[in-house]
Amino acid sequence: IKLSIEQFLSRRFKKQIEQIVADLDVFNLVIEISYNEIAKKKNIRPIIRQINTIKKYGLAVSINNLGSDFSFAKKIHLLLPVVDILRIDIKYFNQKENWIDLPITFWVKLTNKYRLELLVSGVETKADDQLLNRLGIDLRSGFLYSAPKPFSNING
């Protein structure tokens, strides 16, 4: 579930999560918030509190839209102990450069240090797939594997 930071921090959010968990027999539900919205916040303590609250319901939290610049990690470092997944999009990494594996390797090491999952999205070519194989990244998505599908079309 992708949420804006306002939705995520709203007072009604906890009640809405309780309702979703009660109404649906959900498992492996991931709440996704955008790095771009987190970066706008001066105080991330309310975000940390909300993450801790929803994790009590067995939900995972992902931060998406992370790029190749190492400054992204500095801005989210306080969230690393409480989130579950970091999602990077391979399009943010300069594939014409010989050192594309360096910034991706940084994210691999960071997620390993904090015992997080690393999801690489936007995988569209065999070259992307081979690079991720070489770097040992198994969690990935993109048109190379499948076009997006409505939830109702996904076979469990």
Question: How would you describe what is shown here?
Answer:
The protein is an alpha/beta fold and 156 residues long. The chain is globular, with a radius of gyration of 16 Å. α6 (101-113) links the parallel β4 (85-89) and β5. A 5-stranded parallel sheet has the order 1-2-3-4-5. The longest helix is centred in the last third of the chain and has 13 residues, at 101-113. The protein has helices spanning 5-9, 13-23, 35-39, 45-55, 71-76, 101-113, 126-135, and strands spanning 2-3, 30-34, 60-66, 85-89, 117-121.
Question: Could you give the topology of this structure?
Answer:
Blueprint: E1 2-3, H1 5-9, H2 13-23, E2 30-34, H3 35-39, H4 45-55, E3 60-66, H5 71-76, E4 85-89, H6 101-113, E5 117-121, H7 126-135
Parallel strand pairs: 1-2, 2-3, 3-4, 4-5
Order the strands across the largest sheet as they lie in space. Answer: 1-2-3-4-5
Distance between the termini: 18 Å
Largest sheet: 5 strands, parallel
Tell me, briefly, the overall form: globular
Which class best fits the helix and strand makeup? Answer: alpha/beta
Number of separate helices:
7
Mean pLDDT score: 84
The percent of residues in helical segments reads 25-40%
- Residue ranges: pLDDT <50 for 5 or more in a row? none
How much of the residues is beta strand, in percent?
15-25%
Radius of gyration, taken over Cα atoms and rounded to an integer in Å: 16 Å
How many strands appear in the DSSP assignment?
A: 5
Order of helices and strands: EHHEHHEHEHEH
